[in-house]
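hi! just following up on the protien thing from before. the input was this:
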Amino acid sequence: MKTALKLDLEEAKLMIEAAKEKSAEINVFETIAIVDDGGSVIALERMNGARITGPEIAIAKAYTAAGHKRSTHLFNKEPNGPALPGNEAFGIQHMLNGKFAVFVGGFPIVVNGEVVGGIGISGGNGEQDTAVGTAALKALQSYLEKDGYEVVTEADIKK
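and the predicted 3d structure came back as:
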């Protein structure tokens, strides 16, 4: 029997607050979604002024990152991104009726080597979404390190 780590609401809220702080710092209005390891939404926030399309996009990014255990932009990263034309997963974004995102802004939440959820960021350009997402992951790392947990905080995550 395996003991599993579970992301909780307190941790999701902490990540959202860190994401909002970074968003304000770089002057972009974002939507932030946090999902559990099964892709179900734990927390979602659309900042004032963020696009109305943000929630659906952020949820899809978080869902994809958690479910496929990789940062969403890696699907299209040259030269071997699996969703690129001619590669093994070309067209995968058409699966699951809009729930699968293959562009920048989704990151798995990896704690002690285990994917416990995903975070999706929507509203900025790729660089901004990445900065906001990694700020949230770094906040989770700072919060959990006192208890001996390690969180992957770089942008290119593939589990």
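The radius of gyration is 15 Å.
The chain has a mean pLDDT of 96.
cheers
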